[in-house]
Design a protein that fits this description.
elongated, mainly alpha, 2 helices, about 100 residues
């Protein structure tokens, strides 16, 4: 039972902040794109959107969100380890 509570706790401590920050990053990247290009980002899956724009948008937004999410998860894991004395459940080595 304690293991289930620990895993649930990690999901809250690790995933929730990462999701919130990823959403904020997406909004920031969208705003930056609009400012840099002078227009709103177009749907990259729309065939009318030039491939160059679709690829640029996908790379920029994916990299931005990915990097920020990574940094938040690493920080969350550090905080978890300091608070509990051990790594979060997904980072623990399998015991044989």
């Amino acid at each position: 039972m304690a293991d289930v509570v620990t895993k649930l706790g990690w999901r809250l401590v690790g995933s929730l902040p990462a999701a919130l920050v990823a959403n904020a990053t997406r909004k920031a990247v969208t705003a930056g794109w609009s400012k840099a290009t002078g227009g709103a980002a177009k749907d990259p899956t729309d065939p009318r959107t030039p491939l160059r724009s679709a690829l640029a948008w996908s790379l920029l937004s994916g990299a931005g969100v990915g990097v920020v999410e990574l940094l938040v998860l690493r920080r969350s894991a550090t905080i978890w380890a300091r608070a509990t004395g051990e790594l979060p459940p997904p980072l623990r080595e399998e015991e044989s």
